[in-house]
Amino acid sequence: AQSVSQHNHHVILSEAASLELGCNYSYGGTVNLFWYVQYPGQHLQLLLKYFSGDPLVKGIKGFEAEFIKSKFSFNLRKPSVQWSDTAEYFCAVNFYNTDKLIFGTGTRLQVFP
Amino acid sequence: GAVVSQHPSWVICKSGTSVKIECRSLDFQATTMFWYRQFPKQSLMLMATSNEGSKATYEQGVEKDKFLINHASLTLSTLTVTSAHPEDSSFYICSAELGRGADGYTFGSGTRLTVV
Question: Average pLDDT, whole number, for chain A?
Answer without folding.
Answer: 93
